[in-house]
C-alpha cells in the first residue's frame, strides 16, 4: 500500500504568528477548509488578526517595536498568520489535494535572534520525518532570511543529518514588500542552497506565471491576503511539490540503464566533450547516454515568434517556427525527447579565446518544448560545468534557472575545477555522477508508475490557451487529445518495459 508522504511547511519569519500548539491548530484548520473561497476567507481573517496582534501588543499606544515584539512573544502562538505564513498556509492547503500529510513549524522557535539554537533535536526529528520541505520566508535584501540561513548551516554542518536528508524534496515561497522586491532571486538562491545540501528542488506548477516557487507581494503586517495572485503562485508551489511527493511514494524500481541526455552547450577544441566521455566511460553498463554537441551544431537564435509552438501535435513532431535547412534543431528534435534526466554541459573559461558556444541559443530555442505542454517534465536535471578557476560566470546557476522552467527536478550541479588545463576534482565529479544516475533511476520509476494510475491523476495537460473561435477550438482540442493519448501510450510502453513488477 502507498504510504502518505509528509510535507513539512517551514515558516521562516521572525514576525511569525504561529508557534507551539498554534502549528497544529493551523494544520487542523486547513484540513477543515473545503474550497478556495473558504480558504481565502480564513487567510484574510488570520492575516488581519496578526495586524490586530500587533496593535494590541502596543502599536495602538505608540510603543516601540522592541516592546511590541516582546509583547507578541508572550502570546500563545495560536492565532494570526504573518505574510509569509499566509502564503505558506495557502500552499499547504493546496498540497492536501495530492493526499500528502502536512505539518507546519516555525524556525523562530528553534533559531533565536541571539544566535542560540533551542530544541535542536526536535527540529532534526521534524526534518527527518518529512519527505519534503516547503520553505516560506520574507525577502531580505533580495535573499532569504537569517532563519533559512541557519537551517541550511545546521544541515550542512551535521554529517549524520546531512546524509539522511539526501534525496528529499524542496520547494520555496518568498514574500517581499515590493512587487519586484527580489522574490525570484530569493527563490533561485534558496533552490541552489538546498540542492547543494542534497535536496531535490522543484519550482512551480503551470497555473500561474511564477516559475521558481510562490511569490508574494506584501508590505505591512497583515497584508498578504490581499495579493490574490501571490496566493495563487503559492498554491501552485504547494501542488508542484506535493504531486511529486505523491509520485515518489509509489516506490517502484526500474530495470536496465537510465536514459540521460547530455547537451554540450559550450566547449573549446572538444575539451569538455572528451572530459564528458571519460566520465561516462565509468558508467557504461548502467547508462544509456545521448550526447548532443550544441557547441558544434549550427542553431539559429530564437526570433521570439508569437505562435510558439507552431501547432499542437504529438511530441515526436518538431514544432518550432524556424525551419531553415541550415538550422540543426529540427534534426536534433527527436534526440531531445524521452529521457530520464538532462545534463547541460558547459565549459566556463577565464577568457573566451577559441570557445564555441551554443548555450544561449539552445536555451532560447528549447521554448517550443516547454510551451508544448512541458515535454521535458519531471526529468532530473543538473548542470555539469568544467570551470577554470577564476572564470566566475555562474553557469550552474544560470542553467538551473533556465531549465527548471521546463518543470524538471533540479539536483546538485557537478562542477569540475580546472587549473592550468588540469581537472582538479575528477574523482568527486565521478562520485557526483554516480549519485545523479541513482537519482535519475528513482525519479524515472516514479514518473513511469503514473502510467498505471487513474486517468484523471495521471496527466494534466497545461500549456495551450484555447482560441475563442469555436471551430478552431475543436481542432485544437482534438490535436491536444491526440497528443495526450500519444504521451500516455509512450509512457505505458516504457512502464511495461522498464518497471519491475
Ligand atoms: C531587513 C529587511 C530586509 C528586507 N528586504 C526586502 C527586499 O529586499 N525586498 C522586498 O520586497 N522586501 C524586503 N523586506 C520586506 C519583507 O520582505 C516583507 O515585509 C515581508 O512581507 C515580511 O514577511 P513576514 O511578515 O512573513 O515576515 C525586508 C524587510 C526587512 C526587515
The gist of it:
This protein has helices at residues 21-31, 36-56, 65-73, 83-95, 120-129, 146-156, 159-165, 183-196, 228-248, 271-281, 329-332, 359-365, 367-371, 395-403, 426-449, 455-458, 470-498, and strands at residues 6-11, 101-106, 132-138, 169-176, 200-201, 214-217, 258-268, 287-293, 341-348, 355-357, 380-381, 384-388, 409-410, 414-419, 422-423. The protein is of the alpha/beta class and 501 residues long. It folds into 2 domains: 6-15 and 82-248, Flavodoxin domain (Rossmann fold, 3-Layer(aba) Sandwich); 258-452, Rossmann fold.
Helical content stands at 40-55%
The count of strands amounts to 15
What does the main sheet amount to? 9 strands, mixed
Rg is 24 Å
How many domains make up the coordinates? 2
Kindly report how far apart the N and C termini lie. Answer: 14 Å
The CATH topology of the largest domain comes to Rossmann fold
Mean pLDDT: 94
Amino acid at each position: 500500500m502507498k504510504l502518505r508522504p509528509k510535507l513539512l511547511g517551514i515558516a521562516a519569519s521572525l514576525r511569525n504568528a504561529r508557534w507551539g500548539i498554534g502549528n497544529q491548530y493551523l494544520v487542523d484548520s486547513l484540513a477543515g477548509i473545503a474550497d478556495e473561497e473558504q480558504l481565502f476567507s480564513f487567510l484574510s481573517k488570520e492575516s488581519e488578526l496578526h495586524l490586530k496582534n500587533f496593535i494590541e501588543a502596543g502599536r495602538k499606544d505608540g510603543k516601540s517595536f522592541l516592546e511590541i515584539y516582546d509583547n507578541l512573544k508572550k502570546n500563545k502562538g495560536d492565532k494570526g498568520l504573518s505574510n509569509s505564513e499566509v502564503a505558506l498556509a495557502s500552499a499547504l492547503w493546496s498540497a492536501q489535494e495530492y493526499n500528502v500529510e502536512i505539518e507546519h513549524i516555525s524556525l523562530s522557535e528553534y533559531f533565536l535572534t541571539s544566535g542560540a539554537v533551542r530544541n535542536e533535536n526536535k527540529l532534526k526529528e521534524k526534518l527527518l520525518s518529512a519527505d519534503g520541505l516547503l520553505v516560506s520566508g520574507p525577502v531580505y535584501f533580495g535573499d532569504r532570511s537569517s532563519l533559512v540561513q541557519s537551517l541550511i548551516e545546521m544541515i550542512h554542518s551535521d554529517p549524520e543529518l546531512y546524509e539522511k536528508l539526501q534525496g528529499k524534496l524542496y520547494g520555496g515561497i518568498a514574500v517581499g514588500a515590493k512587487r519586484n522586491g527580489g522574490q525570484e532571486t530569493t527563490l533561485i538562491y534558496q533552490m541552489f542552497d538546498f540542492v547543494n545540501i542534497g535536496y531535490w528542488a522543484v519550482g512551480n506548477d503551470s497555473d500561474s506565471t511564477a516559475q521558481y516557487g510562490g511569490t508574494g507581494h506584501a508590505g505591512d503586517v497583515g497584508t498578504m491576503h490581499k495579493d490574490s495572485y501571490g496566493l495563487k503562485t503559492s498554491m501552485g508551489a504547494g501542488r508542484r511539490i506535493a504531486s511529486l511527493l505523491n509520485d515518489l511514494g509509489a516506490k517502484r524500481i526500474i530495470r536496465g540503464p537510465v536514459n540521460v541526455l547530455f547537451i554540450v552547450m559550450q566547449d573549446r577544441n572538444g575539451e569538455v566533450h572528451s572530459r564528458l566521455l571519460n566520465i561516462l566511460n565509468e558508467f557504461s553498463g548502467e547508462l544509456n547516454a545521448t550526447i548532443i554537441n550544441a557547441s558544434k551544431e549550427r542553431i539559429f537564435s530564437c526570433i521570439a515568434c508569437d505562435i510558439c509552438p507552431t501547432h499542437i501535435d504529438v511530441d515526436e513532431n518538431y514544432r518550432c517556427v524556424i525551419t531553415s535547412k541550415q538550422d540543426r534543431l529540427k534534426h536534433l528534435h527527436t534526440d531531445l525527447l524521452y529521457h530520464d534526466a538532462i545534463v547541460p554541459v558547459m565549459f566556463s573559461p577565464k577568457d573566451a579565446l577559441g570557445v564555441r558556444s551554443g548555450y544561449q541559443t539552445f536555451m532560447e530555442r528549447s521554448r517550443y518544448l516547454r510551451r508544448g505542454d512541458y515535454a521535458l517534465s519531471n526529468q532530473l536535471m543538473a548542470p555539469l560545468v568544467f570551470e577554470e578557476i577564476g572564470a566566475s560566470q555562474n553557469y550552474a546557476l544560470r542553467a538551473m534557472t533556465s531549465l527548471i522552467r521546463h518543470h524538471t527536478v533540479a539536483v546538485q550541479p557537478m562542477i569540475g575545477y580546472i587549473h592550468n588545463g588540469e581537472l582538479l576534482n575528477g574523482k568527486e565529479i565521478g562520485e557526483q555522477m554516480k549519485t545523479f544516475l541513482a537519482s535519475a533511476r528513482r525519479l524515472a520509476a516514479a514518473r513511469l508508475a503514473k502510467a498505471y494510475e487513474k486517468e484523471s491523476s495521471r496527466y494534466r495537460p497545461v500549456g495551450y490557451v484555447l482560441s475563442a473561435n469555436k471551430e478552431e477550438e475543436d481542432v485544437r482540442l482534438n490535436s491536444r487529445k491526440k497528443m495526450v493519448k500519444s504521451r500516455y501510450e509512450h509512457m505505458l510502453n516504457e512502464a511495461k518495459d522498464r518497471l519491475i513488477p
